[in-house]
Amino acid sequence: MFDSYRENTLRYNPERCFGCLRCTEVCLHGVFAEKDRRVEVVRPEGCMECGACARNCPVQAIEVQSGVGCAWAMIGAALRGKEMDSGTCGCGGETGSCCGGER
Fold first, then answer.
1. What confidence tens digit (pLDDT) does each residue in 20-47 have?
2. How many angstroms separate the CA atoms of 6 and 84, rounded?
3. C-alpha span between 101 and 34 (Å, rounded)
4. Which value, in Å, is the radius of gyration of the alpha carbons in the chain?
5. How many whole angstroms separate alpha carbon 18 and alpha carbon 62?
6. What average pLDDT is seen over the chain?
């Protein structure tokens, strides 16, 4: 089962990266950092799957399915007045979906 607290859809291909650092500029959670004139993923668990990094990567070195993970679950939980840790599903999906709880 997909655990949105520990897993996400972020995929990074370092061979494509040429070091523009746009991902480090748009990621507010410190997922990426510069190393040897390229980028590396240093905090994958910090990814909220907003998709800003992928949308700003000019060489498509980053892929993420925005709207399927933690950020979407948190927004959905807030809109429904539920807590992410309450055991109830905050994303609005079926039991076993991203947060795995009951509605």
1. 999 999 998 999 999 998 999 999 988 8
2. 14
3. 37
4. 15
5. 12
6. 77
Token output for 98 = 């991203």
For CA atoms 56, 77, 103, 92, give the dihedral sign.
negative
Is residue 88 within 8 A of residue 103, CB to CB? The reply is: yes
Beta bridge partners of 35: 38
Q: Quote the CA–CA distance of 61 and 37 in Å, as a whole number.
A: 15
- In the structure, what pLDDT confidence band is assigned to residue 15 with cuts at 50, 70 and 90? very high
More confident residue, 72 or 47: 47
